[in-house]
Each structure stands twice: as structure tokens, then as C-alpha cells.
């Protein structure tokens, strides 16, 4: 596939995708997607959109294995959301999910920093279903799922749901620390 080739001759910096300390970038000379950590290549993937997706998945796998496992399982169960789930995992991996602003909006449950514009924050609200103000959500592109079919899933709603689930899992891990070591905690 030549999807990544352009006719431009000016030296544009190669766009790289950063995921929790890993770097995903397209190497034009080798015609392959690279996953790098500390400047070292950890994975090489074929050119094209599928290779790019696989490279992003691999970077998440390397950086945050439990998030990768969650996204992989969600994508298997909900193939229609596959692309959005991996974009959401990228948002979670990069810490783009933020808590609600106290007192700002009654129904706000969290915020998600835009992937493309870090100055844009999407407020995630809950009124029967999760709501998001992004175009994907507002203009009915995002697929509807759920028992009643009322919940639309853009990548921001998915990122919020995934982040919350991970926090709940972390909070539910039993405390097995011996009593005498409590003194060493912060
Ligand atoms: Zn959204």
C-alpha cells in the first residue's frame, strides 16, 4: 500500500505517535512501521493502515499490558467499535482521561483531552447514558450499543469507561501488606 506516500518534496518532520513512553513512527526508507522504546526498535510492522494499527496495539502491549488486554477483549466482543476502542486505549495510555471538575457541571463524571488538539477538553456527562460533545458523538457516527441501544460510544466515552474500570480494578486489589510495613507508606 502506498497510503503513506505523499507527493510533497519538502522535508516535513515524520509524524510520530507517542504512547506512554513508546514511540510509533513510519520509516519511509524501510517502508515499515516501527515501535521504539528509548530509541531502540522493539517491533517492525508492514506499511499501511493495518500495520499502523498493529504498531499502536504493540506499543500499548509493551507499555501497559493490562490496558492492552482490556482493549483487546473489548474489541473482540464489540468488533464494530474496534477502531474507537484502540484510539480510546491510546487516550488512556497517555493520561488523557481527567476527573470531573468539582462544581462545574452537575452531571459531569470526567473529562477527556482531545487526541488531535491538547487544548480541547471533552466533558463526559452522565444522564441515563454517557454523553460527549464531540462530533463523532453528536452527529450520530458513533455506534449505539447496550441493552437498550441508547448508549453511543465515541472514543472519549470509551476512554472514560476504560479508565474508570481500571481504577475500580486497582482499588479492589486486597490489601495484603503486613501491618509493620504501613509505617513506610507515604
Ligand atoms: Zn466523544
Provide a descriptive summary of the structure in words.
The chain has 186 residues and is an alpha+beta fold. It folds into two domains: 16-63, no CATH class; 66-171, no CATH class. It is built from five helices and ten strands. It has helices spanning 49-63, 65-77, 82-93, 135-138, 155-171, and strands at residues 16-19, 22-27, 32-37, 40-45, 97-99, 108-113, 121-127, 129-131, 144-145, 151-152. The strands form three sheets. A four-stranded antiparallel beta sheet has the order 1-2-3-4, with helices on one face. A hairpin with a 5-residue loop joins strand 9 and strand 10 (151-152). It is globular, with a radius of gyration of 19 Å. The relative contact order is 0.10. Bound molecules: zinc ion.
Average pLDDT, to the nearest integer?
A: 87
Q: Assign the structural class, choosing from mainly alpha, mainly beta, alpha/beta, alpha+beta, or little secondary structure.
A: alpha+beta
Number of strands: 10
Radius of gyration: 19 Å
> Which percent band covers the strand fraction?
15-25%
Outline, from the CA principal axes? globular
N/C terminus separation: 53 Å
Count of discrete domains: 2
Bound molecules: zinc ion
Q: Strand sequence of the main sheet, in spatial order?
A: 1-2-3-4
Tally of DSSP helical segments: 5
- Largest sheet geometry: 4 strands, antiparallel
The helical percent reads 25-40%
Order of helices and strands: EEEEHHHEEEEHEEH
Poorly predicted segments: 1-10
Amino acid at each position: 500500500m502506498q497510503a503513506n506516500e505523499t507527493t510533497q518534496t519538502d522535508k516535513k518532520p515524520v509524524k510520530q505517535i507517542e504512547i506512554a513512553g513508546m514511540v510509533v513512527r513510519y520509516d519511509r526508507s524501510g517502508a515499515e512501521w516501527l515501535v521504539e522504546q528509548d530509541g531502540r526498535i522493539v517491533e517492525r510492522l508492514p506499511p499501511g493502515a493495518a500495520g499502523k494499527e498493529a504498531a499502536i496495539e504493540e506499543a500499548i502491549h509493551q507499555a501497559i499490558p493490562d490496558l492492552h488486554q482490556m482493549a483487546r477483549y473489548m474489541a473482540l466482543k464489540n468488533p464494530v467499535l474496534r477502531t474507537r476502542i484502540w484510539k480510546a486505549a491510546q487516550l488512556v495510555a497517555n493520561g488523557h482521561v481527567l476527573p470531573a471538575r468539582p462544581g462545574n457541571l452537575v452531571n459531569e463524571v470526567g473529562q477527556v483531552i482531545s487526541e488531535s488538539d491538547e487544548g480541547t477538553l471533552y466533558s463526559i456527562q452522565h444522564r441515563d447514558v454517557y454523553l460527549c460533545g464531540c462530533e463523532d458523538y453528536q452527529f450520530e457516527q458513533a455506534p449505539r450499543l447496550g441493552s437498550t441501544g441508547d448508549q453511543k460510544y465515541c472514543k472519549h466515552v470509551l476512554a472514560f469507561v476504560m479508565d474508570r474500570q481500571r481504577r475500580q480494578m486497582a482499588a479492589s486489589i486486597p490489601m495484603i501488606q503486613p501491618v509493620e510495613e504501613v509505617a513506610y507508606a507515604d
